[in-house]
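Severity: low
Component: inverse-folding endpoint
Summary: output formatting inconsistent between runs
Steps to reproduce: submit the following structure tokens with default settings.
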């Protein structure tokens, strides 16, 4: 009986804690990585089946950490989401959310923005950076919506990417979050994390999209994008990831690249994980119910 009890105890789910990689295993892992092969957190070459299982488990773990994950751009309709996503290039969602209320108050429809004075739009968009190029894009896509789609945002990828300033990433944000059609959003956070986790070695966004899409059922794609992006913004940062506070550390082959001390790692956490406001002025109720705080409006000195 004692042996059976011990066996049952050992079969229980282990506590989430960082993996210790031995020198030999680490050397083997480096050799495998150099050869272009994925490795496990223990440093062993990883089979395709093992990769799929690990990737899906990471997504499940992140879904528990971020059950309220959502697009961090404020919007009330597909047009607003489309414009906000275009504006989010090379700036933060917070800065876009602080800027778009003024834009949409003055130009609430594609028809309004299509007929706008570019100089007036530039002044509104100045805080977003690259405001001249972004002005051309949002006025251009608005004209495209009016001329080609009767002022309505189309719900098909092939139509969206015809609009000025709209690529696949932007199109999938709109399709997934405004139309409920699955898509993978390959932004800078997503690219960085899926390579850090050794889900793929691809660097081209379209190739990354295809590689990651092959690891997950299509129904998971939109939420997967949210989970990965939220994790990249809050814990798995580019320069100094908070490894010691990471809930998926045992599944990560890059554990140790960042701060491993739990207390020091906690100080690196951002947004609601670090006790700070999020990026939306008007976040979903589920986020607020989970303790998240809305971002401050433009002009308050924040962001």
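Observed output (run 2 of 3):
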């Amino acid at each position: 009986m004692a042996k059976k009890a011990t066996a049952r105890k050992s079969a229980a789910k282990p506590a989430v804690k960082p993996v210790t990689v031995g020198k030999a295993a680490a050397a083997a892992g480096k050799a495998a990585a150099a050869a272009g092969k994925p490795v496990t957190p223990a440093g062993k070459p990883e089979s395709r089946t093992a990769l799929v299982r690990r990737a899906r488990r990471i997504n499940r773990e992140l879904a528990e950490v971020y059950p309220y994950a959502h697009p961090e751009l404020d919007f009330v309709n597909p047009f607003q989401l489309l414009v906000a996503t275009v504006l989010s290039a090379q700036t933060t969602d917070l800065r876009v959310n602080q800027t778009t209320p003024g834009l949409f108050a003055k130009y609430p429809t594609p028809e309004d923005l299509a007929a706008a004075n570019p100089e007036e739009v530039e002044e509104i968009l100045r805080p977003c950076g690259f405001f001249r190029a972004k002005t051309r894009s949002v006025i251009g896509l608005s004209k495209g919506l009016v001329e080609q789609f009767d002022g309505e945002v189309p719900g098909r990828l092939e139509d969206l990417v015809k609009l000025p300033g709209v690529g696949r990433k932007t199109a999938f944000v709109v399709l997934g979050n405004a139309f409920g059609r699955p898509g993978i959003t390959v932004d800078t956070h997503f690219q960085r994390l899926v390579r850090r986790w050794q889900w793929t070695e691809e660097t081209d966004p379209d190739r990354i999209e295809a590689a990651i899409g092959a690891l997950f059922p299509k129904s998971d794609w939109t939420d997967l994008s949210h989970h990965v992006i939220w994790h990249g913004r809050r814990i798995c940062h580019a320069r100094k990831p908070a490894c010691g506070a990471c809930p998926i550390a045992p599944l990560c082959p890059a554990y140790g690249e960042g701060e491993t001390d739990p207390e020091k790692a906690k100080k690196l956490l951002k947004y609601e994980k670090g006790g700070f406001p999020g990026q939306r002025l008007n976040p979903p109720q589920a986020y607020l119910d989970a303790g998240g705080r809305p971002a401050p409006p433009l002009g308050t000195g924040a962001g």
